[in-house]
Amino acid sequence: VQLQAFGGGLVQPGGSLRLSCAASGSIFSINDMGWYRQAPGKQREWVAGISSDAKTTEYADSVKGRFTLSRDNAKNTVSLQMNSLKPEDTAVYYCYAGVKDSSRSLFYTNYWGQGTLVTVSS
User: Fold this and answer.
1) Are 91 and 41 in contact (CB under 8 A)?
2) Cα angle at 89 between 14 and 99, to 5 degrees?
3) Is residue 71 within 8 Å of residue 33, measured between CB atoms?
4) What is the mean pLDDT of each run of 10 residues along the chain (122 residues)?
5) d(CA 107, CA 5)
6) Element (H or E) spanning 31, and its range?
7) CB 90, CB 9: distance < 8 Å
8) Confidence (pLDDT) at 105
9) What are phi and psi of 19, to 5 degrees?
């Protein structure tokens, strides 16, 4: 199973970016998906998560009201729309997904994308 994240880049404060992450490989089912981020010199922090049926989304307080998480189960993708970006949103963003790779799997295994850099600066 591989997770490929893309969509990062440089944006001015107040701007928007959309991150996407696609899961591929031997996938039987995917549970929760979401994003973490790690700013320079800081620990990795959870940003947002979405349930398998896409009915429940949760956000860190720092991004609530500005970021919107969605998923497309037909394409095994999760996307993070980031609006009103602030310099403190600058970080490497990592997507994650809980995956069963076969019907015989008892548990979901967490997989991670390679990270995509978001820089918010004027």
Assistant:
1) no
2) 120
3) yes
4) 95 97 95 97 97 97 98 97 98 97 90 96 95
5) 24
6) strand 29-38
7) no
8) 86
9) -100, 140
Report the C-alpha gap between 106 and 42 in whole angstroms.
Answer: 34
Residue 103: per-residue pLDDT: 84
Beta bridge partners of residue 94, listed in sequence order: 36
- Secondary structure, 3-state, the chain: CEEEEECCEEECCCCCEEEEEEEECCCCEEEEEEEEEECCCCCCEEEEEECCCCCCEEECCCCCCCEEEEEECCCCEEEEEECCCCHHHCEEEEEEEEEECCCCCCCCEEEEECCEEEEECC
CA 75 to each of CA 24, 72, 84, 104: distance values in angstroms, whole numbers, following the listed order:
9, 6, 27, 22
